[in-house]
Design brief:
It is built from four helices and nine strands. It has about 170 residues and is an alpha/beta fold. The strands form two sheets. Strands 5-6-4-3-7-8-9 form a seven-stranded mixed beta sheet, with helices on both faces. Strands 1-2 form a two-stranded antiparallel ribbon. Strand 3, helix 3 and strand 4 form a beta-alpha-beta unit.
């Protein structure tokens, strides 16, 4: 599947020298959106997951339809302070500071095979933190799936399990 014609590339956003890969055109076109979800679901199916996990926030756009396509449920990994009840948190380094992800401890992930879905893999810090968090609650992260991977940033080297992307760019 070639997503390239359906991704907007915005130069120098959010800062000079950065290209922002905008998935909005994929979301706007029902045929391309359906093909994208189907391809993600087909790929996820190969890992025989028990649950699909979406990462805050754009991962949520794809985790639910992928999970429904496979007859599975989904769990959200969110930024700190966004989930009620008891949560487990995992902090990770950003370029200028630190961020924290959280998952509710009431989600029954112990012993479950998990596939993570997100829109973009860059340096891998967010996904690596999510993987560590899910491992702490007893899940087995078998794969992480992305619409886009920026391969020149070597994010997949930070991750465990298989890593798949529908579209790859160097930067």
């Amino acid at each position: 599947m070639n997503l390239d014609p359906h991704l907007a590339k915005i130069q120098n956003f959010p800062k000079p020298g950065i290209t922002f890969y905008d998935i909005s055109p994929v979301l706007e076109d029902p045929e391309i959106l359906q093909k994208t979800v189907n391809k993600l679901a087909e790929t996820a199916h190969n890992y025989q997951p028990d649950v699909i996990v979406g990462l805050d926030a754009r991962g949520f756009l794809f985790c639910v339809p992928v999970a429904l396509n496979l007859g599975l449920g989904t769990v959200m990994v969110r930024k700190a302070g966004k989930l009620p009840g008891d949560v487990l948190e995992q902090s990770y380094a950003l370029e200028y500071g630190e961020a924290t992800l959280a998952v509710q401890t009431a989600r029954q992930l112990q012993g479950k095979r998990v596939v993570i879905v997100d829109d973009l893999l860059a340096t891998g810090g967010t996904v690596a933190a999510a993987q560590a968090l899910l491992t702490q609650v007893g899940a087995e992260v078998v794969a992480s799936l992305f619409l886009i991977e920026l391969s020149g940033l070597n994010g997949r080297e930070q991750l465990s399990g298989d890593v798949q992307a529908l579209q790859t760019y160097e930067f």
